[in-house]
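Hi R.,

As promised on Friday, here is the backbone we talked about, encoded as structure tokens. Could you run it through your design pipeline when you get a chance and send me back a sequence?
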């Protein structure tokens, strides 16, 4: 018995979920400074806080992190359909056991 595999290039698109939360936080990178802005959805507040910190300390270098709910989608419609068909066949082959177990839990 032999196994054959096929490699194909698949392109994805990554975007922010339109209803997902977005939060921002920052921290000062000046050596020995432990100043931070805790995660918040108020982006203007983070910018103002960074400006105030720079004005009062002279520290001007920050790490600013943005977190959002991301959605990954296949860009090729045919590949989406092929995978949906493969998942449906696998589900049918398993007798729907995974879904049935979840429904009864």
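Update: got your reply. Pasting your designed sequence below so it's all in one thread:
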């Amino acid at each position: 018995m032999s196994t054959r595999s096929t490699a194909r290039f698949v392109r994805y698109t990554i975007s922010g979920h339109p209803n997902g939360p977005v939060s921002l936080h920052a921290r000062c990178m000046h050596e020995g400074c432990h100043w931070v802005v805790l995660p918040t959805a108020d982006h203007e507040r983070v910018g103002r806080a960074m400006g105030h910190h720079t004005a009062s300390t002279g520290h001007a270098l920050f790490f600013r992190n943005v977190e959002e709910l991301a959605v990954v989608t296949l860009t090729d419609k045919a590949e989406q359909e092929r995978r949906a068909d493969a998942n449906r066949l696998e589900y049918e082959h398993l007798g729907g056991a995974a879904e049935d177990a979840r429904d009864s839990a």
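One thing I noticed while checking it: The first strand starts at residue 12 and ends at 16.

Thanks again,
M.
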